[in-house]
């Protein structure tokens, strides 16, 4: 029966057109290294919310702490130990980050795998701000690592990534917007569900467990993917001209704020101008002092705030960036989709410069993270549009 099912799957495969820099799912490709193409091997049909005619592959998403990651297997790469015994095949976890316009990899991982250098990246853009340039490495052919071994295929060849100063908050690196935009039919994030499966049959329980696992579905062509948006709300969005990143309209307390769409951020961050425009009570700034006793007390208070999630710090190229939660909940919406109430953070993320959101004279700007995006089951990027 397993062989018959495999033969049936093979009979349904369609040839996926090669995608090079310049072809996309409606959003322009920025930062996709030359030579990286989707494999001419087909993408298999996967059960999706769209038409049964859609040619797609669904891969489970891993959670690396609060970060959403995709496992990729590189059958031709090897560690030093593997090379010594004539073996090969490495699996790496990459955070899927719509607010990065380049793929990145940890410099340590690149050294451990003895990756070939193929050039230098002049720099990129992320929510943490402009990224200084770094060496670009060839990763080569990749497969979706969390698919059953017998269902794996060469998803993409010639994949490269750059070892930038801030390669990734977790995992081996980042898969940026260019990777996602390479799929002509679009991509669908399914954040999963947490339904209670107690008291159900083993079959129903397995289905419930499968539905609870976050996944990323990649659509190889546009045919059949037009129904992806069925039942979803379109979010006003645009692609920023220089970085190629996606900006959406985030509504906070009835006030529209331009926000970077950022699946690589577990939190939503407003700048001070956005917080004021939305009539939010600003968190108190931490006082600075030269008194050692007061400094020690302030350090203890900082530790307490971080432990409770009221304060967080993220890495930036010029050092840690402090972000504070707003004091009271605010209503949040994306287009016609009501996202409930939440307490976003307030701070001056360097990446907000892409929206003109830095400095004393800056207008309202935000980074839209997965804490808000997960309030809707699905996020779809297709044909230059965003749906939730």
Automatic annotation (TrEMBL):
Gene3D superfamilies, A to Z: Acid Proteases
Keywords, alphabetical: Signal
BP terms from Gene Ontology: proteolysis
Entry keyword Signal: yes
InterPro entries: Aspartic_peptidase_AS, Peptidase_aspartic_dom_sf
GO molecular function: aspartic-type endopeptidase activity
Span of the signal peptide: 1-26
Highest taxon above the source species: Eukaryota
Residue ranges the record marks as coiled coil: none
Descriptive protein name: Peptidase A2 domain-containing protein
Lineage, highest ranks first: Eukaryota, Haptista, Haptophyta, Prymnesiophyceae, Coccolithales
């Amino acid at each position: 029966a397993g062989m018959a099912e495999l033969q049936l799957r093979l009979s349904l495969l369609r040839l996926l057109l090669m995608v090079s820099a310049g072809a996309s799912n409606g959003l322009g490709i920025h930062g996709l290294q030359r030579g990286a193409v989707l494999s001419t091997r087909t993408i298999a049909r996967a059960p999706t919310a769209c038409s049964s005619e859609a040619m797609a592959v669904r891969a489970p998403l891993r959670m690396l702490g609060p970060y959403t990651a995709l496992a990729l297997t590189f059958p031709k790469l090897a560690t030093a130990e593997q090379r010594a015994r004539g073996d090969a095949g490495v699996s790496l976890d990459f955070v899927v980050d719509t607010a990065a316009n380049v793929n990145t990899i940890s410099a340590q991982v690149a050294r451990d795998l003895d990756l070939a250098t193929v050039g230098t990246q002049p720099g990129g853009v992320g929510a943490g701000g402009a990224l200084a340039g770094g060496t670009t490495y060839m990763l080569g052919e990749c497969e979706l690592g969390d698919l059953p071994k017998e269902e794996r295929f060469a998803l993409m060849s010639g994949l490269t990534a750059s070892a930038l100063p801030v390669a990734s908050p977790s995992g081996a690196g980042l898969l940026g917007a260019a990777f996602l935009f390479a799929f002509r039919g679009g991509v669908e994030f399914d954040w999963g569900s947490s339904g209670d499966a107690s008291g159900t049959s083993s079959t129903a329980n397995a289905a419930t467990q499968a539905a609870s696992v976050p996944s990323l579905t990649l659509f190889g062509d546009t045919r059949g993917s037009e129904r992806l948006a069925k039942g979803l709300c379109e979010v006003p969005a645009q692609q920023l001209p220089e970085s190629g990143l996606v900006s959406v309209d985030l509504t906070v307390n009835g006030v529209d704020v331009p926000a970077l769409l950022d699946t690589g951020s577990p939190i939503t961050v407003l700048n001070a101008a956005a917080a004021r425009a939305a009539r939010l009570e600003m968190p108190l700034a931490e006082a600075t002092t030269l008194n050692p006793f007061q400094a020690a007390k302030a350090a203890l208070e900082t530790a307490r705030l971080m432990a409770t999630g009221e304060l967080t710090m993220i890495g930036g190229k010029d050092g840690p960036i402090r972000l504070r939660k707003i004091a009271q909940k605010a209503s949040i919406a994306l287009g016609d989709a009501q996202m409930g109430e939440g307490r976003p953070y307030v701070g001056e993320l360097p990446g907000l410069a892409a929206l003109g959101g830095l400095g004393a004279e800056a207008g309202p700007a935000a980074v839209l993270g997965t804490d808000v995006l997960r309030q809707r089951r699905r996020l779809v990027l297709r044909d230059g549009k965003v749906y939730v």
